[in-house]
Amino acid sequence: MRETQGRVLDVAALARVEGEGAMRVRIDGDTVVGVELDIYEPPRFFEAFLRGRGYEEPPDITARICGICPVAYQMSSSLAIEQICGVTVDGQLAALRRLLYCGEWIESHALHIYLLHAPDFLGYDGGIAMARDHRDIVERGLRLKQVGNRLMELVGGRAVHPVNVRVGGFYRLPDLDALRAMVPDLQWACGAALDTVSWVAGFDIPDHHGEWDLVALAGDGEYPIMGRRIVTSSSPDVVPIEEFGSHAVEEHVAHSHALHASWDSRTYLVGPLARYSLNHHLLPPVAREAAAAAGLGRECRNPFASIVVRAVELLTACTEALRIVREYQPPAGPAVPVVPRAGVGHGASEAPRGLLYHRYELDEQGTILAATIVPPTSQNQRAIERDLWQVAQAGVALDDAALTARCEQSIRNYDPCISCATHDLDLRIVRA
Amino acid sequence: MNAPTRRVAVVKFASCDGCQLTLLDCEDELLGIAGAVDIVHFLEAGGPLLPGPYDLAIVEGSITTAHDAARIRELREQAKVLVSIGACATAGGIQALRNVADVQEYASVVYASPEHISALATSTPISSHVQVDVELRGCPVDKGQLLHVVSSYLLGRPPRLDSSPVCVECKRRGTTCVLVAHGTPCLGPVTHGGCGALCPAFDRGCFGCFGPADTVNARALVDRLRRDSSGVTVDRMFHTFATDAPGFREVHAAEEVEP
Question: Are the beta carbons of A414 and A380 closer than 8 angstroms?
Fold first, then answer.
């Protein structure tokens, strides 16, 4: 029989994830007896120092929680504060926000698919090593990523931590000629994203059925990016985002610098698999057809297939961006005026990695009294660990190197963003 | 291939990942850089993750734990040239807001199990712990400047990083002054350049994300800003992305008598 007594698989520093984390799997005989995703990225205390700041500051401040998805933080925070101030941003300003957000999805998904996740399937230790054998493909991924960054630069001013976002809209409308000049690049990107779906669909994808509930924003006639209603796989009820806090509960566990969440006391998942499965009917037709051709059903619960779903979302974001640019008519001004008032507001949007919830409380001068931020990776951490346990158990016959690689791949299925997950380390009361 | 390929490490401390992402955002140059050097340790990008010694270490993030304080000293011993990139690594970053607050208050008021957390009372730049060869400012760093630093290193010459403030870059760009023309509070006169005066070009004031310029007369700017803005507003501007950097740290406009 195999020598598996007292095996420990340790990865002290996980590669190809955002932020600093470690993994430990303990195996006794043929049985997995423990898994830990240890998040040791140091805390940065965002919610603590937001107290006492001005109502117009969260888009700039909370963007710094994550350099990979700053637009998500800018949008969720703006939406929450606009709710307090009784402001609605709609029409072409809302379309510009969606365009900026599509840029972030394109950039983030292309990065994860091509440089971080595909190497797992093709047997490389990273995208740069993969480029030695697959230069054309990696260059396609980099060019897709560049199209996303270019959109963020045009609408947001820069690709990391855009400067042009404010509560109420933007500081300045994007240059119309430059925006229209994006059409050929976006047409190319739609084709390249379609090719991406076919490429990843051809990978040897391990079989796994995730046992968790799915939670995502409900789309309002279009695939969800920003919204005020939440749908789940466990209940037909639609949950207004104001009730997020009464369903999602975060707990602190000793081995992690991030909090573990549950939804109605059940393990749940946010992100591409949840969005896709709960909003399949809202995909643009080209993306729905590509998904079917790639062998995806209306629902996908195999986290190893998340790379295919992410590619379908990449195509969705490119298609949406092209549509918005083509239909764009400059609005009267770059922003809706915002006058602060006292109250509580909630904002939610779909970061590339999943639902990002913000809640703020303001006084009558607009000073922040309290802030709560729940990022996707801390919501997913329990699901990641549950999967890790099952994947390790299913692969217990593999040797240590192969099983460790499989476990790391399992973690990367979620595109975890550890910088996000640890932003709020010390900021939540345990609610049992 | 006569000369041995230079070994490069990219290492992260407390930060948002945005500055090392800027390296991956060099889409047109990334594979060229990877061909010119040997990237032997870059956790986010994957690769071999080899131990030192390194010819060049590019460091993101600030020091906020005892473990990281030890880790940066070890890295310095392993690195011939050490470049710190971004506001966290060069000024402590936005998380340095804790430096003037009570971290225990942060932890004890709302955190359930603070004993699981090990965080220093301060967030400090890399240069507070070890000698740094080149500092590159910005939250995030500018892609063009980052490429300039890397290519200067490869050519064996010191990088030329203009220390002019944002205000000078703004004049060169020909942007109408947002402070003079519209009364919009702007930190351009005291903020280190490098972004190309981005914010005024988007009709907003500079919010100082590149930190203080080399020579700063904050006093004069505070007096000017106080004509249109409250002391609280002025303090918030100085105390965000480089709050603990000398030149910004001393500003306490709200505590002063009305001008």
Answer: yes
Residues of chain B contacting A161 with CB distance shorter than 8 Å? 18, 139-140, 209
| One domain for residues B35 and B130 | yes
What is the CB neighbour count within 10 angstroms for residue A302? 17
Question: B204: which chain A residues are within 8 Å (Cβ-Cβ)?
Answer: 163-164, 166, 171-172
What are the φ and ψ backbone dihedral angles of B172, each rounded to 5 degrees? -60, -35
Entry pTM: 0.95
Distance between A170 CA and the closest CA of chain B, angstroms: 9
Tokens of B13: 């401390």
B34: which 2 tokens? Answer: 């990877």
- CB-CB under 8 Å, A430 with B139: no
A residues 16-45 lying closer than 8 A (beta carbon) to B: 16-20, 41-45
The ipTM of this complex is 0.95
Is B76 a member of any domain? yes
The pLDDT tens digits for A273-295 are: 999 999 999 999 999 999 999 99
Residue B1 falls inside a structural domain: no
B119 and B193 inside one domain: no
| Count of C-beta atoms within a 10 Å radius of residue B34 | 20
CA torsion, ordered B94, B95, B97, B98, to nearest 10 deg: 180
A158 touches chain B (CB under 8 A): yes
Tell me whether residues A160 and B140 touch, CB distance under 8 A.
yes
Mention every residue, 6+ apart, whose C-beta is less than 8 A from residue A319. Answer: A190, A193, A284, A286, A287
Question: Of the residues B129, B155, B181, which one is the last residue of a structural domain?
Answer: B155
Q: B33 or B87: which carries more pLDDT confidence?
A: B87
Q: Put the strands of the sheet holding A343-351 in their side by side order.
A: A343-351, A354-362, A368-374
- Minimal Cβ distance to A254: which of B42, B116, B233: B116
Question: CA–CA separation, B88 vs A419, rounded Å?
Answer: 14
What share of chain B in percent tops pLDDT 90? 80
Domain A46-421: CATH superfamily, name plus number: Cytochrome-c3 Hydrogenase, chain B (1.10.645.10)
pLDDT at A337: 97
A328 exposure class (CB count in 10 Å sphere: 0-12, 13-18, 19+): middle
